[in-house]
């Protein structure tokens, strides 16, 4: 089995094969090649570079994950802005290229398809899984060179909340039943996710909306070792282990000798059930869930977290919200390693309210609502305006056209589309 599924955009258009779907449901990771022509993606990058040059006295960003608030909604770190020449992560949301990418027909169609792979176990769930909406995130243009940041294996969308929040915990109820019941866990059932609170501690820079697929679109030809994404492509297995991990511990007679990860014995005999242990390995309130060789030894992250295959400009990469992922610390390639962070997000009531607020920040050239404020790009030359987006589908994912389904998949979809149109003022 191919661990990281790569398909052509034409495969998305005609629908993936059962075999491909089987792989995707197991691994939770997908690369879609060829939906956006390479030349178009490279032109996007050039236009971003021109925009940065034209506004260089005002551009802000961060050199690394640890410099400040950054990286596609990861947890925040204190820091200060840097000179434009050293920026890797740009505080840019409203460039023409980003908005053109977010509204590109191939991205919309791919996201529609990927969202439809989720399902509702409750027909009254207030969600439309065939209606993608746009989520404005930032972008990365990372030059080659020595390591500027390290982003170890983690899962976004809260940490301790997976156990602490009753609704979030309910998403994993089969796993928590014990025994063989974990096999009934369905990572693509959207219904219990809608009520989950992934942010009990008001973590700054958290993604506040429901985002079933994280993702980015490549603006460069980037292979393993060139600062790309790393993933652990075993969705249900990893989730089952992660959720049960707080309830077992290393036997005390082994614990003393296990000072480094390679010393930790993995045999079942070396571990005991401990339901009273108050420790939740890798979970820190207000941070993403860390997954390390120390905290989750049986996942063997040093071996199982792998770099994704080479991508070309225009390729889209998506990973399920529960997938453990990391970013390569080194970039030993020759060219830049550049992406636009663009996830696949469905229409829900909460996402519609976010879309309404994001529509306003877009028109004003401000950072989108989840991100650090300030004047953003409001005084920048050449930022995107609504007139740049011609297609009705494109304007709809941005919240400028009503959602107009005439027939509905279920009652929940009917209700959420009506509610969303009202929230957006249509
Ligand atoms: Fe992440």
What do you see in this structure?
- It is a single chain.
- By secondary structure, the protein is an alpha+beta fold.
- It has one domain (5-240, 290-423): Jelly Rolls (Sandwich).
- Helices cover 28% and strands 15% of the residues.
- It has helices at residues 9-14, 18-27, 38-54, 96-102, 105-115, 161-164, 166-170, 173-177, 235-244, 252-255, 301-304, 349-364, 392-397, 411-423; strands at 5-8, 29-33, 61-62, 89-90, 127-133, 139-142, 151-155, 213-218, 229-231, 248-250, 271-273, 289-290, 306-307, 316-320, 325-327, 337-341, 345-348.
- The strands form four sheets. It has an eight-stranded mixed β-sheet with strand order 1-2-14-8-16-6-4-3. The protein has a five-stranded antiparallel β-sheet with strand order 12-7-15-9-13.
- α3 packs antiparallel against α4 (96-102) and α12 (349-364) runs parallel beside α14.
- The longest helix has 17 residues, at 38-54.
- The model is unreliable at 65-81 (pLDDT under 50).
- The protein binds fe (ii) ion.
- Fe (ii) ion (FE2) is lined by residues 74, 154, 156, 325.
Bound molecules: fe (ii) ion
Helix content: 25-40%
What's the domain count? 1
Sequence of strands across the biggest β-sheet? 1-2-14-8-16-6-4-3
Number of helices: 14
CATH architecture verdict:
Sandwich
What's the CATH class, please? Mainly Beta
* CATH topology title: Jelly Rolls
Q: Over all CA atoms, what is the radius of gyration?
A: 21 Å
Q: Overall 3D geometry?
A: globular
Mean pLDDT: 91
| N/C terminus separation | 47 Å
Strand-pairing-aware structural class:
alpha+beta
Count the E strands.
17
Strand content: 15-25%
Low-confidence stretches: 65-81
Within CATH, the superfamily carries the name B-lactam Antibiotic, Isopenicillin N Synthase, Chain
């Amino acid at each position: 089995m191919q661990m990281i599924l790569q398909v052509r955009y034409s495969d998305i258009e005609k629908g993936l094969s059962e075999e491909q779907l089987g792989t995707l449901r197991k691994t939770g990771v997908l690369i879609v090649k060829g939906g956006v022509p390479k030349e178009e993606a490279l032109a996007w990058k050039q236009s971003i570079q021109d925009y940065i040059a034209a506004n260089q006295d005002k551009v802000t960003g961060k050199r690394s994950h640890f410099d400040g608030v950054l990286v596609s909604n990861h947890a925040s770190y204190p820091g200060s802005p840097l000179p434009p020449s050293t920026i890797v992560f740009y505080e840019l949301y409203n460039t023409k290229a980003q908005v053109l990418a977010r509204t590109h027909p191939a991205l919309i169609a791919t996201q529609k398809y990927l969202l439809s792979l989720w399902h509702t176990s409750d027909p009254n769930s207030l969600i439309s899984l065939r209606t993608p909406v746009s989520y404005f995130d930032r972008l990365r243009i990372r030059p080659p060179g020595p390591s500027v940041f390290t982003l170890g294996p983690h899962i976004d969308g809260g940490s301790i909340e997976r156990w602490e929040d009753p609704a979030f915990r309910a998403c994993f109820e089969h796993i928590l039943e014990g025994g063989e019941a974990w096999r009934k866990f369905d990572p693509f059932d959207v219904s219990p996710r809608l009520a989950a609170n992934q942010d009990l501690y008001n973590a700054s820079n958290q993604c506040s909306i429901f985002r079933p697929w994280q993702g980015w679109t490549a603006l460069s030809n980037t292979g393993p070792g060139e600062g790309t994404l790393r993933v652990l492509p075993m969705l249900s297995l990893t989730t089952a282990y992660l959720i049960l991990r707080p309830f077992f511990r290393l036997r005390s007679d082994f614990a003393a000798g296990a000072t480094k990860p390679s010393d930790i014995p993995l045999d079942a005999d070396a571990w005991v059930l401990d339901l009273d242990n108050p420790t939740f390995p890798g979970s820190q309130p207000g941070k993403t869930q860390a997954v390390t060789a120390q905290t989750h030894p049986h996942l063997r992250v040093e071996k199982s977290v792998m770099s994704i295959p080479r991508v070309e400009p225009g390729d889209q990469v998506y990973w399920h919200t529960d997938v453990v992922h990391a970013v390569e610390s080194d970039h030993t390639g020759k060219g830049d390693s550049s992406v636009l962070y663009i996830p696949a997000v469905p229409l829900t009531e909460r996402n519609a309210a976010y879309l309404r607020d994001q529509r306003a920040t877009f028109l004003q050239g401000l950072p989108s609502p989840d991100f650090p404020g300030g004047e953003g790009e409001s005084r920048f030359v050449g930022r995107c305006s609504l007139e740049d987006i011609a297609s009705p589908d494109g304007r709809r994912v941005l919240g400028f056209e009503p959602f107009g389904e005439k027939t509905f998949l279920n009652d929940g979809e009917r209700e959420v589309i009506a509610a969303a149109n009202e929230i957006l003022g249509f």
